[in-house]
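Bench log. Compound arrived from synthesis this morning; before running ITC I wanted a structural hypothesis for how iron/sulfur cluster sits in the protein. Inputs:
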Amino acid sequence: MSPRKHTKQLHVGGVAVGGDAPISVQSMTTTKTADVDGTLAQVYALKGAGADIVRITCNEVEAAQGLAEIVPRSPVPIIADIHFQYRLALAALEAGVQGLRLNPGNIRNEDQIKTVAKEAKDRGVPIRVGVNAGSLDKDLLAKFGSAVPEALVESAQKEIGYLEEVDFTDIKISVKHSNVPSMVDAYRLLSETVEYPLHLGVTEAGPLPGGLIKSVAGISTLLLEGIGDTIRFSLTADPVEEAKAGRQLLEFLGLRERKGLDLIACPSCGRADVDVIKVANEAQEKLAAANLPIQVAVMGCVVNGPGEAREADLGIAAGKGKGHLFIKGQIVRVVPESEMVDALLEEAHRLVEEGIEARLAAADADAARLAAETRAQLIEIQGDANNAAARRRRVAEVAGKA
Ligand code: SF4
């Protein structure tokens, strides 16, 4: 992973964005903003799923009025999403929002932009210049012929110029595109051009699973290059999925501390002694509900499972009708196969409460021996997937004799 590119730090309410602040997760509500209780319920759900900041549309007067009630009751900072009507940006500021998103493609009047910037500056509220390939400034579309990365970056620079003219520098920028390579190129170019924090996203990524794949491809590529300060998955799905995906991506990349479960599982193969998909899904469901901050492995066989998943905090591997519980690769208990998931759940709770050392010390004395016996029996029957060198030698011998 490349070192993170230095950017200026700003604050969206209590959440720092840019500089050395943790990369934050954003999502957007899908309710009508005038529906205060419905919108707040979604904001709370988004926070629960991992969102640090939530964006809400401010598309009409009733929405701005809704924001006035939502903002004081929200558990996270609220950004008002503004298109076309600069007056709604002023109304959202009056409602107390902690951030604004302006689309330079449809608020193009320089004086109006400066009026909003002056008001935001007085209130200490940052503005995201949110360029979108689908709604690019018509003059730039005419100049470049299409929404190429250079056009997106020029649109952002033009808007930044207006803001800087009135001494406004609490700026975040996004240059979203629905085409992943174009999105990546646009952000790379932008990152070379500005010091402001960048908000990453693949726009209109679509339903699952394609939307998720596009978003992960674009956002991860940039994060691994050290580009990006805040992210949003734009999925055609329940926004809770966006928040969850954003949070998990950051955890999987090691950019945020693990808050919840990380379930790893082998893909299964002919050697599996159990229906790995069924067991993994059941374990995922039960462990996710318990929301324990650990990595758990579900492995199809005791021949390779504990060794391959030795990095996991806890795991289970099947073999000859039994489940072999292991902690950091060491077998600690053997249970009937039908009790595998419940045993995993119970051990997960104990591990979080008591710690790895204590649970290793409490291991069943006989567990490792039982597992070794089962493993040896399975290898006798199936062969050892790890003795490939010996098998290659024997195959070569046979081939030589032929
Ligand atoms: Fe196959 Fe066992 Fe590896 Fe799972 S752990 S993929 S069952 S060899």
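What the model suggests: The domain at 262-382 is CATH 3.30.413.10 (Sulfite Reductase Hemoprotein; domain 1). Residues 266-269, 271-272, 299-301, 303-305, 308, 385 surround iron/sulfur cluster (CB under 6 Å).
ITC booked for Thursday regardless.
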